[in-house]
Design a protein that fits this description.
Elements: E1 8-17, H1 20-30, E2 38-45, E3 48-55, H2 58-61, H3 64-69, E4 73-81, E5 96-100, E6 103-113, H4 116-125, H5 135-149, H6 153-160, E7 166-173, E8 177-182, E9 191-194, E10 200-203, H7 206-211, E11 215-219, E12 225-229, E13 238-240, H8 252-258, E14 264-265, E15 268-269, H9 270-284, E16 291-294, H10 300-310, E17 318-320, H11 333-343, E18 344-346, H12 348-351, E19 355-360, H13 367-378, E20 383-388, H14 416-423, E21 427-430, H15 436-440, H16 448-451, H17 463-474
Parallel strand pairs: 16-19, 19-20, 20-21
Antiparallel strand pairs: 1-4, 1-10, 2-3, 2-4, 5-6, 6-7, 7-8, 8-12, 9-10, 9-11, 12-13, 14-15, 17-18
Helix pairs in contact: 4-5, 5-6, 9-10, 11-13
């Protein structure tokens, strides 16, 4: 299955830059945590698009030969991607480039449309032929259809996005303009910055701005489209808010897991939210213990918070092999299990004979947690008290996070006490769902994967059955 995805988008526009592909490369490296299966770059050299994309990590896909093959240009965009349970095929790699009678369009997308199948049916009736299973191609065709009927790319995009439902943060490029678009609910992060040379940079996370020497300007607002003109450094972009007005619902899981801790999303520091989650866990689930250990990487900040609040010392009890991909986004269960075996190594001197509070960001299926606890037991841990810096997952996500169907979520079939027993923990505690506001500092957010309160219309029976059937077919 290759439609649900969590990705990273990146774009630059300014004066002609001989090294613009390398700048995109550096930005994608900073966003590598958001997608590790494929990546791509498109450079715009006076309306001529040059593209290279392939399966693999950024450093695997782009070596010196590939980067040197790109021309200079005044605009470029890039993308990192992962598929959820398979379907990691070349036709789904982004950015996608389409040509039409009024020019070219390159588009990179982070998110997932909840009405993609309806849109694809409509486009197929109009003669569209799809070459991939991704929502990105659907969005490209929607914009292309509207572009033929309108006088500008801005009008085409504003018209096309009215049909889209669900999550989408887009960076796209016409022959003369770079556009950044965020869905009306603001599910996925998107921001932009500015460099001293007057060029503008758009990125999924603020950490990627730092990677290319750009200063953060602001987040793209929910429902906003920002348009940057090519080859006009220092010229402030135009903002269009015609698609705004919905309830703002940033994905709470960005703060819990996906985003890098040094990023700031919608004016909220990711590191601070995770530390607060740990403090809440210490308040709600105190236990007598000797050491607090975080599961690298997204459990470390919460472990610091737990230690500060509880007074129990924080130690590095697990060492991560930094050359292994993130287990949560490995496409298959076998790959997730294999990844955990070589990803984490215990520090025996920290763990042996100790009562350990183990902090992790989530439990979805339970298999990864069981493996980690076995590692700690083998290293001599006397007790292991598992604390999770998110509420239990109970519902699938239709907005771009890899959350399994309800029947595969361990929290839907077992009590916390049973989950502790199944994973081998002496006790367990989940972040209370009513503390998400305290953790994040957000007044509103999307927590549908925890509480089933979806902010938009989602595929429902019999639509849901058809949706899942098509996903299954796409993964074959």
């Amino acid at each position: 299955m290759a439609i649900h995805e969590e990705c990273g988008v990146f774009g630059i526009t300014g004066a002609f830059n001989e090294q613009i592909a390398r700048d995109i490369y550096h930005g994608l490296y900073a966003l590598q945590h958001r997608g590790q299966e494929s990546c791509g770059i498109v450079v715009n050299d006076d309306g001529v698009f040059s593209t290279h994309k392939d399966l693999g990590l950024v450093g695997e896909v782009f070596g010196e030969n590939e980067l040197n093959a790109f021309p200079g240009g005044c605009m470029a965009i890039g993308h990192v991607r992962y598929g959820t349970t398979g379907g990691n095929i070349r036709s789904n790699i982004q950015p996608m480039v389409v040509s039409h009678q009024k020019g070219n369009l390159a588009l990179a997308h982070n998110g997932n449309l909840s009405n993609s199948l309806d849109l694809r049916d409509s486009l197929e009736l109009s003669g569209a032929i799809f070459h991939s299973t991704s929502d990105t191609e659907t969005i490209c065709y929607m914009i292309t259809r509207e572009r033929i009927k309108t006088d500008s790319i801005e009008q085409a995009v504003l018209s096309a996005v009215k049909y889209l439902e669900g999550a989408y943060s887009l960076v796209m490029m016409s022959s003369t303009k770079l556009l950044a678009v965020r869905d009306p609910h603001g599910f996925r992060p998107l921001c932009y910055g500015k460099r001293e040379d007057g060029s503008f940079v758009v990125a999924s996370e603020s950490c990627a701005l730092d990677a290319v020497g750009a200063s953060f300007v602001r987040d793209v607002k929910p429902g906003e489209m920002i348009v940057f003109q090519a080859n006009r450094p220092f010229e402030e972009p135009a903002s269009y808010m015609e698609n705004s007005g919905c309830k703002k619902c940033p994905c709470i899981f960005e703060y819990i897991y996906f985003a890098r801790p040094d990023s700031v999303i919608d004016c909220i520091a990711v590191h601070d939210t995770r530390v607060r989650a740990g403090e809440i866990l210490a308040r709600e689930y105190h236990v007598e213990a000797d050491v607090v250990v975080g599961v690298p990487d997204s459990g470390l900040d919460a472990a610091i918070g737990y230690s500060r609040k509880s007074g129990i010392p924080y130690e590095i009890g697990l060492v991560k092999n930094k050359y292994v991909r993130r287990s949560f986004i490995a496409p298959s269960q076998d790959q997730r299990t294999d990844t955990v075996r070589i990803k984490l190594s215990p520090v025996r001197s920290v763990l042996e004979g100790k009562r350990v509070v183990l902090i992790d960001d989530s439990i979805v299926r339970g298999t990864t947690s069981k493996r980690i606890i076995n590692i700690l037991r083998d290293a001599g841990a006397k007790e292991i008290h598992l604390r999770i810096s998110s509420p239990p997952f109970r519902h699938p996500c239709f907005y771009g996070v890899d959350i399994d169907s309800e029947d595969k979520l361990i929290a839907n079939h077992h009590t916390p006490e049973e989950i502790a027993a199944l994973t081998g923990a002496d006790s367990i505690g989940f972040l209370p769902i009513d503390s998400l506001k305290e953790m994040s500092g957000c007044d509103t957010y999307c927590s549908a994967c925890f509480d089933g309160d979806y902010p938009t219309k989602i595929p429902s029976d019999p639509r849901k059955d058809r949706f899942e059937k098509k996903l299954s077919e796409a993964g074959k």
